[in-house]
Amino acid sequence: MPTDGPVGLILDGTGRHSWRPAHLHYLAYKDGYQTIQTELFNSDSRHLDSDAVFGVKQSPLVPYTLIEDSAAAAEHGFNGPFYEGHYDFVMKDDASVIDAEKAYSPRASMSS
User: Fold this and answer.
1) What is the pLDDT of residues 62-83, one digit of tens each?
2) Alpha carbons 29 and 50: distance in angstroms, whole number
3) What is the pTM for the complete model shown?
4) Which of these, 33, 65, 72, 86, could form a disulfide with 91 (CB 3.0-4.6 Å)?
5) C-alpha 65, offset from chain centre
6) Separation CA 48–CA 46 (nearest Å)
7) Is pLDDT larger for residue 100 or for residue 48?
8) Is 32 inside a domain boundary?
9) Which domain holds residue 49?
10) Is 1 inside a domain boundary?
């Protein structure tokens, strides 16, 4: 979030910081279903109660567990301990969505 210009003036004037809680963005799509575009927040992240954009709600909070099992790490392609969290996405039927991948892949892709 920018802290210069009008946004910075508002943040300074209200005594607020510009920080967001730790979060991951998701885009889930499948033909015949409504696309889900959302973010999930680490349940123990700082700034949950003071998110600069007031985007935190109870439903997208995910607890993460530290996994130190080397076999589990190797199974997931990691060389050491990692954190694991679970969240169930529920998609609504929508027969008008015919080619969800074509519509969203170019915008969501991290590759060139």
Assistant:
1) 999 999 999 999 999 999 999 9
2) 31
3) 0.71
4) 33
5) 17
6) 6
7) 48
8) yes
9) 20-108
10) no
